Amino acid sequence: MLMNDYIIGNQVIKVQSVDSTNNYAAKLLNQTKVPFGSVIMAYYQTSGRGQRNSLWNSVNGNNLLISIILDLSSIPPEKIFYLSKLVALAIKSSVENITGIEVMLKWPNDILINKKKVAGVLIENQWKDKKIASSIVGIGLNVNQIDFSEIKSATSLKIVTSKNYELNVVLKLLCDKLNIYYKKLINLDYKTIDDEYHKCLINVNSWCDFRDNNKTFNALVKGVNEQGELILEFRNGSIKAYELKQITQLI
Ligand code: BTN
Fold first, then answer.
1. What is the pLDDT at residue 3?
2. Which residue has the least CA distance to atom 3 on ligand 1?
3. CB within 6 Å of ligand 1 — which residues?
4. pLDDT under 50: residue ranges of the chain
5. Which residues of 204-240 are buried (b: 16+ CB within 10 A; e: fewer)?
6. Is the pTM of this model over 0.90?
């Protein structure tokens, strides 16, 4: 890859401990001129954040905790969910390279091995005049942690391979993959990203259980639309799109 094409991870800022790398990245963006593509990596987060206001806890030094600062101003705002898709695909590709085990994606962008979560993504966009001025892509990838105590649905690279990994090596590979997929988005190659995403999306074309506020229901998973909504079909043939906050997929 040409040097010009290597944007993500050109600069890596490592910090021992921080509240959240996403917060740190947001502060950097506000206070300094930080180059796009910069990666913030922390060994420990005191208040790591997950999707839906959850916490993201991680044993000190065991896992990859990073945030990437990106410029997506050339992407129309309505296409921004492709960023989620490409990040999930890049993580999938690097984890498969490392472990040799198949990785699946769960809407919107959980990364699963054997139906357990090995990585999660939290993207936060900064808006300016109805345009996305910058995006912060937070990635938590479980690498060497083997005890997740209360979280039974978590796994790590070490759990599935019984090997330890150097965080720097995992980071380098992940950045390589992110650069490849990021380039597809910058080239507006939405179709490739979308096709690949749907190929490894868990439960596509299967009947699954979901929960919304107060009830559990069964529906056929059709796919994920451009807005990042999950498209479900019901027994009576009706079709509905759901936002992330509306439902939970029970697998
Ligand atoms: C999820 O709930 O699946 C998303 C988890 C995202 C965690 C990462 S760890 C690095 C970055 N900093 C944070 O506070 N969160 C993200």
1. 55
2. 120
3. 20-22, 45, 48-51, 54, 56, 65-67, 110, 120-122, 138-140
4. none
5. beeebebeeeeeeeebbbbebeeebbbbbeeeeeeee
6. yes
